[in-house]
Write a structure and sequence with these properties.
This protein is α+β, with helices and mostly antiparallel strands. The chain has one helix spanning about 10-20, and strands spanning about 5-10, 25-30, 35-40, 45-55, 65-74.
Length: about 70
């Protein structure tokens, strides 16, 4: 499910997903980089995360704040 684009980053949005959906916060590295990506494994077994839609800041600050949407997988 997609929602409106909002500014944020993976860590802050994972924290809010965890507060409202419960479950556990997990971390994986983005492919080919050492940048962490934070997700929430919900109690129902689904995986939710904050997906980048558009960068707001130039590299390397683009990971600190970007426009994104919440996505549910599984």
């Amino acid at each position: 499910m997609r929602y409106a684009m909002i500014p944020g980053n993976c860590l802050i949005c994972a924290f809010f997903l965890w507060l409202f959906k419960g479950g556990s916060i997990i971390m994986a590295y983005r492919p080919g980089t050492s940048v962490p990506h934070w997700m929430v494994k919900c109690r129902d077994g689904s995986l939710r995360h904050f997906k980048v839609v558009k960068d707001i800041l130039p590299w390397p600050l683009c990971y600190v704040l970007f426009l994104g949407t919440f996505e549910k997988k599984g």
